[in-house]
Amino acid sequence: MNSILNKINYLWIYFMFMFLYPSVVFSDIAENWQLGFQDPATPIMEGIINLHHDLMFFICIISVFVSWMLGRTLWHFEYKQNSIPSSLTHGTLIEIVWTVTPAIILLIIAIPSFSLLYAMDEIISPAITIKTLGHQWYWSYEYSDYLDENNEALLYDSYMIPEEDLELGQFRLLEVDNRIVVPVNTHIRIIVSAADVLHSWAVPSLGIKCDAIPGRLNQTSLFVKREGVYYGQCSEICGINHGFMPIVVEAVSLPNYISWIANKLSE
Ligand code: CUA
């Protein structure tokens, strides 16, 4: 009981801080007791968060209004207060109003929603194309824009680091041996597919969740605004090790990216 109370207290403090203070350090990983989003690193994720807040505005007004109406109805039409019921069964005007108003609200919501949806679908002449392939149970990444001396594309696997091999400061179930490295402020095309069963390539801070489907190429775009390490997980149940195929995206400056690519190619 005591520990539950402690948790409720903690939640309250957390809740107040969440609204009073914006985070000082970017959170690109899930936190304990997290309620909100991870911090955005792409314009798309910023759009998703803004749309969420826009919708919350309508949700708050609607919930307060509906609860108020429900309360008033229960109060005024309770059998003691209203012992002789009215025989009224229809009211054309009010029926038009309560049909048209929600329809207008839905239309208002549809405008930002559709513009975000189409923005997410847009691929703006990408400078780099990266192919990510889901396997049971790891990811593999292919940078086919660059060829090494054997004319082979850069291709490597990315496995989760098992718990016993973790070093101090590394995140359990989230760290991988080979990260996917991308440059910041560059339009990148991500091509997603799977080798065996359905997987899903998802990184919350980047606003990406793209299904990896065997025999089908899905594509999504990526434009990272700041350097950082972004953590994600496979988001489609794909077998017993579904929880053990995390994704780590490292966004670096363009010169660092070029030297990383050069190193990888000469390996
Ligand atoms: Cu791969 Cu779940």
Order of helices and strands: HHHEEEEEEEEEEH
CATH architecture of the largest domain: Sandwich
Calculate Rg over CA atoms: 25 Å
Helix/strand-derived category reads: alpha+beta
CATH fold-level topology of the largest domain: Immunoglobulin-like
What's the layout of helices and strands?
Blueprint: H1 2-20, H2 43-76, H3 92-121, E1 128-135, E2 138-147, E3 153-158, E4 180-183, E5 188-194, E6 199-203, E7 208-212, E8 218-222, E9 228-234, E10 246-252, H4 254-266
Parallel strand pairs: 1-5, 4-10
Antiparallel strand pairs: 1-2, 2-3, 5-8, 6-7, 6-9, 9-10
Dinuclear copper ion (CUA) is lined by residues 134, 137, 199, 234, 236-238, 242, 245.
What does this structure look like?
This protein starts with a helix and ends with a helix. Strands 3-2-1-5-8 form a five-stranded mixed β-sheet, with helices on one face. A five-stranded mixed β-sheet has the order 4-10-9-6-7. The protein has four helices and ten strands. The longest helix is centred in the N-terminal third of the chain and has 34 residues, at 43-76. It has helices at 2-20, 43-76, 92-121, 254-266, and strands spanning 128-135, 138-147, 153-158, 180-183, 188-194, 199-203, 208-212, 218-222, 228-234, 246-252. It has two domains: 43-81 and 91-121, Helix Hairpins; 128-266, Cupredoxins -  blue copper proteins (Immunoglobulin-like, Sandwich). The chain is elongated, with a radius of gyration of 25 Å. Helices cover 36% and strands 24% of the residues. Helix 2 packs antiparallel against helix 3 (92-121). By secondary structure, the protein is of the alpha+beta class. The structure holds dinuclear copper ion (CUA).
